[in-house]
Amino acid sequence: MNIGITCYPTYGGSGIVATELGMELAARGYDVHFISYANPIRLDTAIPRIHYHEVEVSNYPLFHFPPYCLALASRMAEVAECYHLDLLHVHYAIPHSIAAHLAKEMLAQKMTGGRRLPFVTTLHGTDITLVGMDRSYFPITRFSIEQSDGITAISEYLRNKTIDVFNVSKPVEVIHNFVNCDLYRPGEKRAKRTTLLHISNFRPVKRVLDCVRILREVRKSVDARLLMAGDGPDRGPAEMLAHELGVSEHIDFLGKRDHIERLIPEADVLLLPSEIEAFGLAALEAMACAVPPIATRTGGTPELITHGVDGFLEAVGEIEAQSARAVELLTDDVLYARISAAARKTAETRYCTSRIIPVYERMYERIAG
Ligand code: GMT
Description:
Layout (H helix, E strand, L loop, with lengths): L1 E5 L6 H15 L3 E6 L13 E5 L13 H15 L4 E5 L1 H16 L10 E5 L2 H4 L8 H10 L2 E4 L2 H11 L6 E2 L20 E5 L8 H11 L6 E5 L5 H11 L5 E5 L4 H4 L5 E4 L8 H8 L4 E4 L4 H4 L7 E3 L4 H13 L1 H18 L2 H16 L1
Parallel strand pairs: 1-2, 1-4, 2-3, 4-5, 5-6, 6-7, 8-9, 8-11, 9-10, 11-12, 12-13
Helix pairs in contact: 2-3, 3-5, 7-8, 7-12, 10-13
Bound molecules: ligand GMT.
């Protein structure tokens, strides 16, 4: 089967899921064609059966806003024709879903051979919870979701939200995020635990400033440090806050990092204090490395993390509660051993690629007919 995948290629959970999915599919014998404006950050183009097609957005003085969506739709249609794509799988509804719809319509025309090009839309979170609900995008988001031949959401929470908000009449299938448990593995056990880790795109929804506040609280009892991986609009404010709170020498702002699977095992606890999180891929990747997550009880995180069993869930903005959990995990050996082993077990038994990829494959077979 020949599959076209479109995603945001820079840092962000949806692009990571799309890229890992494409590489897993290629390993299983599919020809996978990535269509995007840049090479997805985790994509290894040396892998057999992986292809990358860049979308060029030509500018013109008349265009105040370069029309990326149209350039993407044209490229999708071209690639589909040249490489006999059986379907398109787009990640993040806006604008990928409407571009896929346009490409599908273009291919359906008799003058280009009247080919069928079904498409699957995978909803990841902010495409529904923030951007899609914005008035200017609401009608087109609903339309493009409805036009999809298959719709998936990465959690029950997101599925319910999509149905509630957009009144979608078609079935929305839940296919959770996944992790490669051979690549994401526990590191060496350390006698002394001191390292907290946060990974994100530093958008306001991630509440990265809370990580700095948590570190300050934790340092009242433990000589802890914080690794902050990623970059985005709230990095500067977080750096400023670290200075103000007098903890800057205990925080490493690492910027965007490749091979996150090598970084995670260096940490003892993952912090995910988000305002909203449709699933929480960073928490899952940490769990696969037996690093317990402390996350907020919001969106889809309770589907992944069972409070007190394989991680902790606290209320959004509750710095003291999140800090207290971090101190417990850093200081209590018995508790740490139990939660960390359970975290790895959850990742292995429920979210491993070997379990989740076949669910996508079955969907493709149904849709491509
Ligand atoms: O984390 C982000 O804000 C990026 C965003 C994206 O779409 O790139 O992530 C979303 O998709 C991830 C992968 O499916 C989910 O694990 C994240 O929970 C979700 N983020 C939010 O809902 C805020």
